[in-house]
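Pinned message: reference record for Branched-chain amino acid transport system permease protein
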Amino acid sequence: MLELIVISTLNGVLYGMLLFLMASGLTVIFSMLGVLNFAHASFYMLGAFFGFQISRWVGFWPALLIAPLLAGAIGAAVERYGLRRVHKNGHVAELLFTFGLAFAIEEIVQIIWGKSPVDFRVPPLLDFPAFTIFSTNYPAFKMFMLLVSVAIFLGLLLALKKTRIGLIVQAALTHPHMVGHLGHNVGRIFMLVFGVGTALAAVAGVIAGPALVTQSNMAGLLGPILFVVVVVGGLGSLPGAFIASLLIGLLQTFAVSMNASLAGLLGPLSPDLAQSWLSDIWNVTIAQIAPIMPYLLLVLVLIFRPMGLLGTRDT
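Predicted structure (tokens):
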């Protein structure tokens, strides 16, 4: 029992921090620009494929720097030449634009790299077990992912709350004309924020690519749960996204490891009910419903606290 708790906790924290690393950029974009970017997971995928390609040419560590810069530059161009023009037509137009952009990026990735998974490997420097617990080896690369996620969380908080740049960015969202009169280029600020947000998603792609499967449908596999994290944590709240990521990571990891069911807890159904549809539900295990638990949590949060755990916006 102790082994199950310790290992599930470690796996849950690692998975939760990976979710935060992906959701942090989406949270920054929404909190600064008010745009819920449906193509955010596609930039995560671009980061993984850029990292794979660049690592084949010059190695993993240069790729960790270059791939997010490339994805961030593409994101900044998308905001400058696409999203900014669409913005005047309202939020529905923005959602449709980013929704279409997600499909376009996926098709481009399939044209260049194909539909099959690519061989994106862990760098040799981190290809060893960091420690062993209960005869289970934990890779050093996963510890590296955890450290990067925590560093980005702290760095973003400090940048947004304690620096002049962060204050200007936040002021540009609520009082753009005043910031413009003070001599700041508001359009450039928004472009840079969108670029930074997409670059953060690409960082997640580069470090998650070797640990997970790098393939053309990876955005679709992890994209929906990012919005669960952002909504549960509170739209635009970085600490909320951090807490929600850990909560969902632990919830799903513990659920996967549990085989309990109503039949195990309360015993088998009576012969009269054993042949009914109720028998299927009676024998379903917690592990079988683990994939839908984050979405059940989303429904409950929207019912009882629509602004999220630490959010201040209802919409």
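Pinned by admin. Summary line: The first helix runs from residue 2 to 33.
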